[in-house]
Amino acid sequence: AQTVTQSQPEMSVQEAETVTLSCTYDTSENNYYLFWYKQPPSRQMILVIRQEAYKQQNATENRFSVNFQKAAKSFSLKISDSQLGDTAMYFCAFGGNDMRFGAGTRLTVKP
Amino acid sequence: NAGVTQTPKFQVLKTGQSMTLQCAQDMNHNSMYWYRQDPGMGLRLIYYSASEGTTDKGEVPNGYNVSRLNKREFSLRLESAAPSQTSVYFCASSDDRGLGTKNIQYFGAGTRLSVL
Q1: DSSP string covering B17-78
Q2: pLDDT tens column, A30-68
Q3: Is B42 in Cβ contact with A104 (below 8 Å)?
Q4: Which of A33, A44, A104 lies at the smallest CB-CB distance from B107?
């Protein structure tokens, strides 16, 4: 079975600093997709970044970047220059049609 | 752009009552999904539909039925609601044909359901 594990239930960071959220997964597949979604208090699920497993280059999206280690099945999210609006739950997700989500990390950005 | 629209936003049911959660997308996506979100557990897939006329079970399908009415609409039905089905329900859709957008799921705003 495919599983996604986020080992940090809560994290906090000072505004303008950098924070890294961890995610590990388990699969026997070779080609797949990985995602980070953000869920602010409004409850809306917002895509942050996507990584295709066959691409060795780590995905970046403005202040957001990932460290994808396929052999270690690790997919961490780095947020640079943290902003107050980054405060949210962050979910790591794996797969395609049968998407599996981690339990989430609650990130608080402090002024 | 409306994107993915879910109705209702809130609902309270009594045990044993039935109801249907509605979902519609206007992005011409071929795939649609229903998830439930419980505290501390992230999102879990209930059912998905890879194309009009097809549906498949996800991780937690028991107690639910779905209908892919047409390409735009995908409904979730609780025939006899139970307190264990108290949750926030999300509908999502994706376009699995475009290389740049493959498997990116776009979510509705969610339905908060309480079963007493």
Answers
A1: --EEEEEEESS--SEEEEEEE-TTS-EEEEEEESSTT--EE-S--TT-EEEE-SSSBEEEEE
A2: 778 899 999 998 889 999 999 988 888 999 999 999 999
A3: yes
A4: A44
